[in-house]
Amino acid sequence: MKLDSKIPEGHISKKWTDYKDHLKLVAPNNRPKIDIIVVGTGLAGASAAASLGEMGYNVKAFCFQDSPRRAHSIAAQGGINAAKNYQNDGDSTFRLFYDTIKGGDYRAREANVHRLAEVSGNIIDQCVAQGVPFARDYGGLLDNRSFGGTQVQRTFYAAGQTGQQLLLGAYSALSRQIGLGRVQQFNRHEMLDLVKVDGKARGIIARNLVTGEIERHSAHAVIIASGGYGNVYFLSTNAMGSNVTAGWKIHKQGALFANPCYVQIHPTCIPVHGTNQSKLTLMSESLRNSGRIWVPKKKEDAEAIRAGKLKPTQIAEEDRDYYLERRYPAFGNLVPRDVASRAAKERCDAGYGIEANDTNEGVYLDFSTEIQNKGKQAAYAAGNHNPSAEEITKLGKAWLEEKYGNLFTMYQKITDENPYETPMKIYPAVHYTMGGVWVDYNLQSTIPGCFVAGEANFSDHGANRLGASALMQGLADGYFVLPYTVSDYLADDIRTGKISTDLPEFVEAENRVKSTIDKFLNNNGTKSVDYFHKKLGLIMWNKVGMGRNEKGLTEAISEIAALKEEFYKDVYVPGSADELNPELEKAIRVADFIELGQLMAMDALQRKESCGGHFREEYQDAEGETLRDDENFKFVGAWEYKGDDISKEELHKEELKYEFIKIAARNYK
Questions:
Q1: What's the CA gap between 521 and 526, in Å, rounded?
Q2: What is the pTM of this model?
Q3: pLDDT-derived band of residue 274, with 50, 70 and 90 as boundaries?
Q4: Which of 294, 296, 167, 216 has the alpha carbon at shortest distance from 35?
Q5: 405 and 275, same structural domain?
Q6: What CATH number should be reported for the domain holding residue 367?
Q7: pLDDT tens, 172-192?
Q8: The domain containing residue 607 runs over which residues?
Q9: What sign for the dihedral angle of Cα 435, 439, 444, 447?
Q10: Does residue 316 belong to any structural domain of this protein?
Q11: pLDDT for res 138
């Protein structure tokens, strides 16, 4: 199979404009004759469904939640990037493009990333017009803050709930189209297979999660916007329901799955506190604007803290190791996520962790310096040039509360500790997945008519995502890319007419789904679905996690293959098919996670280099930084499904060409 990325010719700054100027169009009077299915209604899916509905297409939108408002996009806290240069600090479209390519460790596709940077400003204008309450400065202008991997302030935000506010904006646009009858919304429905007719995506098989009914839905094009696969690790910052099933089902139908080993570990997560925990909680990366990360310099102090004999506030300033500031003076606490995560792991592995959990893993995120600095500034601005220590502290805490109040409240409710008084405890956790379904420049997979948007595709972040870029990609894909590229594809379908769900391909796909369900319900095993999911998660975290090596990856591949065999023999799924059955939902999703986990380990094993979130311990320099191999691994690794035995999957390579950016070693020092 030859991968055709369809990247247009021309200068990087003109590619997208020239390309979309020459795409085919569907006339307004023909759009109501065409049906489009959108799977997933987070930022990418909701914005795509709303945009295509506004254009006049008939859209069916599916989500497994009880409302699109419940999509995991709401969990994004810190902000959304855009190259508007409001702070006049040297930002530009090119700089956002460069930072994203560099942040992804030169493993992203140039043309897609530049397009993302180009449309970023339009996203902010669109969202402001929808009423998204972005933070504003004293004069009423939109405010910005910094995020990791950049030296400018380009992140627009709404307190610590940016994702929620952006999703409400997209949901409002979607609701308008539902009210006009252009979008049919199917809540509590899960896509369980893709239907292909004559090689093209022509519909899906979905299960009504309330009644258990299996439904056939036809369309002229299908858009998958179902999010990432972080829950393959069991413990992650993802919502409990987040899964890979929609992406994996189209993979089995011929869509290549690209760079599955690229997983982002987020550095600011509340540490694991027990073996029965089922989810981890993220603390926004925006906190690294104001917090300083440290561990004790002395092991005996770390041991005393873990034993409860010392409090962090009792550790003198000279006895604290602000290790990010020490190792990366140019960026300090605002290094990219993968760099900050590995640095935390290195300190904890060396015995300096501060959390009294099973692994002693945890570091401090301390706001005391910011409280003092902002308190003095606030007092001075109010005309008090000689404030007392109490006044400074009070004003500093008030400044923090205005900026991050809901995040601090959330932390205190979970940990019962006051982060205004004592440093937060944080540790890296699985967060975002840069890998996903392979797509070309049009966001079309290797299945004609099957498009993939947002985190579900691989296209924009390379081996590591810069903070505040996920919301940017989701909305860019839905509002500003797919309306052009999907229309170009559909221009040849205006005479096709309604696609019947009685076609044999629909019958065959429905039978596949029913057979899988029957198999699980009649299995009579002895172990719960969660038992297998946890076992998979432990293998993935320990051997395909932050640090990877040949021995561990080889073991993981065989261990996951054995787990798959045991799963199908011994999983127990209670209940029946014709009812609300969460265990059945989980079983189908975990079956896909197990296969994906094996492929992730295979992809990590073949990539004999370290880049971004993929850290092979054999490939690091003397200071523990990543060692890329641009001569042998400057490619996208896209895997083709070859049947039930995942070890038989075939690797295809899309060479990455950098014409407008010079490849260099990533340096944040």
A1: 12
A2: 0.97
A3: confident
A4: 216
A5: yes
A6: 3.90.700.10
A7: 999 999 999 999 999 999 999
A8: 503-629
A9: negative
A10: yes
A11: 86
